[in-house]
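STRUCTURE:
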């Protein structure tokens, strides 16, 4: 911790100048934004002795087994994992109904409201801190890591998996050797431990959700019709052919901190963003500004 003194004049009164000394404390924090995915935990575990903050953003739509995984990780590292969540939205459906949007060229509305906004609120409470983020990108994601460093110079960055030459498969092997059962969604055949019914999924993904979680599929299909927009570009879920899509052709990204950091960068770098009407699609940033005014 470093302490700086800031001196400012508060004006004159009876020929006496009043000065106020403010002490600004800069705290060095190394943060692991654990996404309930295997890679993000292993990355943090490799540098656990220097980590000051483990944070998990809870979303109601994730598989209930995700919180079991977080608790198991907490026991192993011997440190508390802070669980935070949105205080404005209850779940993905709540976001979609209030923003009248599912996906847009700027990202998914749920990513922005349930994750990005929550993280930004935490950062606003630590403005004077020197932040280092520990990333779960593996050996095959070096270009992505370079992009993070280039686009977010305001933070320090560490990539333990890349530094150790570890792949995603290595991480799953390590988690097993550590005695932690990986999240249920992996064992069901999903590539990432995202929300059940991730709005960014493709045809194969949604047909698998139809089989594994039929009630979630039904709810998302009804939600699409309610707001007039679809998760998959060009087709509503209730029109999706049961045999459509192939797993190898689809890439559903890990909906973790990397996802919403990139989402944030789009917001910051595009001042003249495309705006949609309610009959088309309205960007979530318009609704965010409306919330601020309220």
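SEQUENCE:
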């Amino acid at each position: 911790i470093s302490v700086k003194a800031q001196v400012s004049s508060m004006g004159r009164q009876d020929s006496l100048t009043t000065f106020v000394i403010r002490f600004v404390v800069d705290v060095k924090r190394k943060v692991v934004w654990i996404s309930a995915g295997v890679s993000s935990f292993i990355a943090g575990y490799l540098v656990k002795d220097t980590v000051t903050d483990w944070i998990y953003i809870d979303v109601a739509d994730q598989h209930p087994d995700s919180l079991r995984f977080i608790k198991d990780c907490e026991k192993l590292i011997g440190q508390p994992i802070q669980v935070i969540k949105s205080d404005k939205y209850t779940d993905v459906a709540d976001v979609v109904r209030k923003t009248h949007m599912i996906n847009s060229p700027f990202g998914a509305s749920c990513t922005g409201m349930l994750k990005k906004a929550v993280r930004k609120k935490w950062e606003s409470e630590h403005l004077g801190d020197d932040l280092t983020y520990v990333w779960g990108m593996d050996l095959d994601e070096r270009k992505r890591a370079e992009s993070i460093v280039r686009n977010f110079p305001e933070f320090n960055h560490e990539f333990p998996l890349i530094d150790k030459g570890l792949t995603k498969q290595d991480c799953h092997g390590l988690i097993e050797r550590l005695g932690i059962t990986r999240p249920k969604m992996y064992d069901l055949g999903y590539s990432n431990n995202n929300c059940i019914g991730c709005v960014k999924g493709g045809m194969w993904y949604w047909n698998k959700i139809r089989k594994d979680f039929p009630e979630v599929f039904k709810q998302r299909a009804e939600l699409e019709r309610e707001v007039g927009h679809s998760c998959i570009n060009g087709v509503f879920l209730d029109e999706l052919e049961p045999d459509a899509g192939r797993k190898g052709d689809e890439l559903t990204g890990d909906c973790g901190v990397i996802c919403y950091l990139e989402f944030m960068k789009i917001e910051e770098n595009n001042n003249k963003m495309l705006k949609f009407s309610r009959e088309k699609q309205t960007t979530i940033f318009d609704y965010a500004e409306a919330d601020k005014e309220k």
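REMARK: DSSP finds twelve helices and nine strands in the chain.
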